Amino acid sequence: MKLLAIPLLIAAVGSSLFSSLIPASAQTWTQTSAPITNWTAIASSADGVKLVAVASGGAIYTSTNSGASWAPATNAPDQAWRAVASSADGNKLIAAVRGGGIYRSVDSGLTWTQTGASSNAWISITSSADGNKLAAVASIFPPPDFFTSSDSGTTWITNGSPYDRWLAIAASADGNTLVACGGLGTILASTNAGNSWTTNDIVGGTSSSAASSADGSRLVVTGIVAGGGRICLSTNSGLAWTQTNAPSVGPVALSADGTKLVAASSVSYSNNFPIYVSTDFGVTWTTNFPPGTNYWTGVVSSADGGKLAAIASGPGGGGIWTLQTAPAPQMNTTPANGNLTLSWIIPSTNFVLEQNLDLTSTNWTDVTNMPVLNLTNLQDEVTLPLTNGSGFYRLATP
Fold this sequence. Notes:
- By secondary structure, the protein is an all-beta fold.
- 1% of the residues lie in helices and 43% in strands.
- Strands 7, 8, 9, 10, 11, 12, 13 and 14 form an 8-stranded antiparallel beta sheet that branches. It has a 4-stranded mixed beta sheet with strand order 1-36-32-33, with no helix packed on it.
């Protein structure tokens, strides 16, 4: 099989292509049926289908249809929930209580059990794609306020991380790269699951949110400084950082490849709180004003950036909003050892891998090899034997 580089076929969806840069007029945030309450955190499966949201009023709600409907977790204890994280498949969930313990679920939120973590002022938690490696931070001073687990939360350890009043933490898909930020302006990065750290104070004020690409190379931290907000970016796993002019100071989320950013503002403009979306890692931004006045407390993205969700809080409570677009999948090709591996980021839209041996015909057929999920980069992979012939492949809507 000979690989022919034809971008139109490799990125094709049915008979047309979708643009990943959606104009502002086409980006419509929709309020879901989730209860109006003080939501504090939200997490998503890699495909954006399974969502879990927690509230300071004791509620945990889950969705299995990208936020179209929500159901309460009836077996979850009534606690002041502050943080939540999810594995890539949405089956393993971990949730932390502000002033309490850390709880986990292995059945997508149907049942919850308390882990071995002690009571603490937990404020943020993150998970690897397989749900085995966890990291949690607490907003207390002095430490211990930084903990990791390598067994899905059964046991927790702390180490000599720098002092700060930590507010947010994020992890790469394999859980080895960590980025944390705190109330004293410190950015903390690790590439070995927290065994050693690189520190930076580029924010220069309170840093409030963090996000990581799947491979951990691209990191994002948002901060609040005098005169407004700031988004800081790293393309080398936290060794160096640059500041952007993005006008957001609130929660942030990142797609698996690190190209798509969503950031929600905690600063009101004309009695509304905008949400900003970037498809080029913060170079340019599209501004959205979802209806209603919402103090955004969390945002989340599917691996391909096609499904976004935002939660709100405030004196009168807040809801959960979603935005769904159809980004074009990008197929990667890797020949090795007589085989050809086709891979693409876990899609938020259903696609089928098709092949055609002759482009003069319309004889596209499904590739029967089932994709295998690579948890280190959140990509579906299909490996095929190379031959002396030619072949063409595309991802098409079924």
